[in-house]
Amino acid sequence: MTVIVNNKETDLTQGNTIADLAKQLELPEKGVAIALHNRMIPREKWADQTLQPNDSLVIIKAACGG
Predict the structure, then answer these.
(1) pLDDT tens for residues 35-57?
(2) What pLDDT is recorded for position 66?
(3) Fold (CATH) for 2-61
(4) Where are the chain's structural domains?
(5) Which residues, 6 or more positions from 53, have their beta carbon under 8 angstroms from its beta carbon?
(6) If you write DSSP's letter for every residue of the chain in order, what string do you get?
(7) What predicted TM-score, i.e. pTM, was given to this entire model?
(8) What superkingdom does the record give (predicted)?
(9) Of 19, 24, 43, 63, whose Cβ has the fewest other Cβ atoms within 10 Å?
C-alpha cells in the first residue's frame, strides 16, 4: 500500500497502522510526532490508527541545538 509521507510516496510493506509505518521507517522511540491529514495522532494511538492507500502523513522529528 502506498501512503504519502512528508509529500513523498512511501510503500508500507508490512501492516497497515501508523505503528507499522514508524517501525518500517525505523523512527526513534522518542522525539517524533506524526500527523495524519494534518491531525496529530498521539503515540499511544499509533497501533490503533489504520492507514488507507494515499493517506497523507507528516513526520516531525525533534531537533536540539542552538
Answers:
(1) 999 999 999 999 999 999 999 99
(2) 61
(3) Ubiquitin-like (UB roll) (3.10.20)
(4) 2-61
(5) 1, 2, 3
(6) -EEEETTEEEE--S-SBHHHHHHHTT--SSSEEEEETTEEE-GGGTTT-B--TT-EEEEEE-----
(7) 0.90
(8) Bacteria
(9) 63
Number of CB atoms found within 10 A of residue 34's CB? 23
Instruction: Select from 52, 39, 41 the least CA-distant residue to 12.
Output: 52
C-alpha cell of 55?
Answer: 493517506
Banded model confidence at residue 64, pLDDT cuts 50, 70, 90: confident
Contact present, 55 and 7 (Cβ < 8 Å): no
